[in-house]
Each structure stands twice: as C-alpha cells, then as structure tokens.
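As practice, study what follows.
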Amino acid sequence: MQPFALERYFSKYEFSTKHILSASDCESLTMQELLSMADEESQSLWNSLKLSYTETLGHPLLLTEIAKLYRAIPPSQVLVAAPEELIFMAMQSLLSKGDHVIVTTPAYQSLHEIATSIGCLVDRWELHPTVDGWTLNLQFLADHVTDKTKLILVNFPHNPTGHHISSEEQRDIIQIARKHNVPLFSDEMYRGAEYRTADRLPPFADEYERGISLWGLSKSFALPGLRIGWLVSKNADFLAKCSRLRDYLTICNSAPGEILGLIALRQREQILQRTRTIIVKNLDIASKFFARHSEFFSWLKPKAGSVAFPILRKNTPIEEFCRNLIERSSLLITPGSLFQYPGNHFRIGIGRIDFPESLAILEASL
C-alpha cells in the first residue's frame, strides 16, 4: 500500500501546531463528562472493570446497544473494532486481485487504497462542485457497474466535502447494486451529524440485503480516543471472515473503551444533540466568513457532517498556502491534494468549539 497521505500529514503537524482548522472529528468529550452520563449498570461495570481480554466480536451489552441503532440488525450481525481496522478487514474479506470496485471520491484514502493494493481495478465515482455545493451523478454508477464489479463503496455524509444524498438517491444506488447483485459498503462515520435529524438516512445495511454499514464513536459521538467502531451486515460468512482476520490484528477491543462506549451509546441523543449544536453554530460562522472573503475563496456549503471542502481562488498552490499558514500562524488546514483531488480545494472542520478562534487566525493571515 502507498503511504496514507492524510495520516502522514496529521502525524507531522497535528500535535505541533497550536490551532487546527482541519479536524474531521467533533469536540471531544472529557472522561468526566462521559462518566457523568453513566447509568447505574454501566457505572457498576466501570467501577468493577478488570483490564483483561475482551470478547472478539465485542461486549454483549455493547452489541445489544449498537443493534438498537438499526431496524433489521440483531446483535449477532455486529462486529466491533477500530473503524480503520474494520475497513481493512472488510476489503480483505470481500476482494481479490482483478476485481472491479467503484468508490465515491474524493475519499478517505483507505476506501480505495486497500482495494488498489489487492490488485483491484478501481473506478472513482467523483463528486463535482457546483454553485450550490456538490453533486453526484448516479448515471456514472449505472454505466460503470459490470459483471466484474465486486464492491461499491459510498460515504455519506461525505468526507471531505460534507455532501449528503437524498433518500431518493439512496434508493437509486441500492436499486443499481441490487440489479447487479453487488455488495455495497457504506461508510457512515458521520451519521448523527446531520444538521437536521430529518436528513438522516436509514443505514444501507438496513435497506439492502447485501449492504454493509460502518459507524463508530470517532466523529459524531465525539469520542475518537476510544477507538470503537462497528460493522453491521446480514452476511454471516462475511462477518466470520472479518473475525478470523481480526485474530491477526488487535484480536479484541480495549476493555475500558467498550464500557465507555456503552455509556455513550446509552446517552446517544444527548451526545448527538451536543454535536449538532456545535456544528450548526460553526456552519453559520463559516458561511459569513466565506461571504466576506469571496475574492479569496469559493465556499461550497456542506449539507451534513463536520467537514467542508472550499476552494482557494488565488494562483498560489494550495500546498504552499497551507504550508505558509503552518509556518507563520501555527494554523493547520489540509490541502485537497491529500485526497488526490485536483484544484485548490482544502478541508476545514466545523465540529470543534475553538473553530471561531481558528477561523479568525485564517482571516488575519489573509
């Protein structure tokens, strides 16, 4: 596999710059805040917790709580692990050399890089910028599915653009996949961070018999440090293959992470409402900022999630612009080239409470 460009970039700068304007996660909860939400049972589990090995699939109570997030998924169809690990296990379980894969792009690199490293032919189903944000051409998907297509990968709400599809578009995507009997992997890590709960789509795994849905606590639940995510699928053989691969990876989850995750899931509405409140407030601030500086930027307003992907309108290459901000202002933003996307795009994150201060530093630098 090629080096993970985005993660190498963050590894170099995330903890050495003072201000981060490109964070994809939401304002993290503190341990004290999370434990204050614990009910009697989960508090007792926390107080008596032994730091021993845990069950490979996940703590039974955690699996039960996750299953409540879905309409047609029982606990037996849930696998808990770190989200990135789940992507790796899924791709390795589903794909072989020579397979054809279709991936929405720009994308988190592992969603296409793992398939490429296996030897798959990867078609990039690109989102395109418009005056109203972003658009996705469903005809591309219909035209590019072939007998060799073994997987379709989608990601909504989308990282890095913040685009979101309608329920009609979701039904059309499923219809195309079903027509060709192709598995559909849906990265739903930003589920719960829609600006309106009415915009939240049903999970693909609920709606499509060959759908696989990924979610976790890193983004909308504001708990990336727990490293807890989950895959859900109605395909028992697929989950079994992933579990066998897991034996060569982390084997099982962190015992503290599972109990803290259980606490979070039992208080999910409170946590998700906190996330939405921060994002909606910052989205308004961002819209006003980019309106004031339209000579510098094209603002492509996101529809959901905690990220956006505007354009620098100056001739300065976006990589140079970002490097200058790091060196002169200790401000981190992410160039779009790290997502292998052309043009002068850059990603900003709108999920943290210091967003106004970071944006003010960008404004002063102009």
The two ends are 38 Å apart (CA to CA). The first helix runs from residue 5 to 13. The domain at 5-30+269-365 is CATH 3.90.1150.10 (Aspartate Aminotransferase, domain 1).
